[in-house]
Amino acid sequence: MPRSTAPPAIGVSMAWADWEKARPRLPPPTFAGEVQSADGPKVYASWNLSAPIDGAKPWRWLGRLRLALERAIGVPFRREDGAAGEPIGLGHHWSLGELSDALQPPRIEYPAWLWPQGKEDFYRNLCRYGAKLQRRGILTREELIAASLSFWARLPKEERLRFKGDRWQVCHKKAFAAYDFIQRCEIEPTATPEAIKEARSRGGRARVSQRRKNAQNRRERVAQLREEGLTQKEIARLLGVGIATVKRDYAALDASTA
Questions:
Q1: Strand order across the beta sheet in which 86-90 lies
Q2: Torsion over CA: 123, 190, 151, 48 (sign)
Q3: What would the pLDDT profile of 178-232 be if each residue is shown by its tens digit?
């Protein structure tokens, strides 16, 4: 994972009608734009920081700001990690202090970190800590990055050398992987290494099955739109996928009817 020099951002997407309801309760976003999805056009909005951050405390604070903003939205939304679509407007880039003044995040009592002894239990303890956050409803990727950076600081030098990559690469990669894993699988905070391994395998099989189901549903939709006379570009734009994906679906449909 290459080091990112871009400042982090808090992003969400929601239906246009919900965005109109939520906007008066939120600080002005840095970016707002329209994105296409299977359910139709949606609004993507992000609040970008003015400068990169590093260290456990700023990342934890950013996680608290994300929770405060999401609780202020008050309508259905989806978390997003990257900008997409055409911008409606580029606004103010926020500092942590400015966002804190605008959102007034509540004090959160985080559970104690489960300090790792070495490389073997670094990821496992990160997943167990994330499971505690999930149970309390305060899980954020930013908090797992903060925990990962703190874990790294406690490791002996000889244990750090066993990882591939520098501090930034290792900590962000482990935090991202743990966050995605916890979102997919239900694990207990006291889970054993064997239980976590089994959950990862079970989650992998479920993801493969879901991807196949999604692909089949998309092909059926592509076939329907093709019969209606839409071009490949129009279908790709409507479904929010790349033109290469539509071409593959065309080939699969043609092969099935040959």
A1: 78-80, 9-15, 40-48, 31-37, 86-90
A2: positive
A3: 998 888 776 555 555 566 566 556 555 556 666 777 788 888 888 888 888 888 8
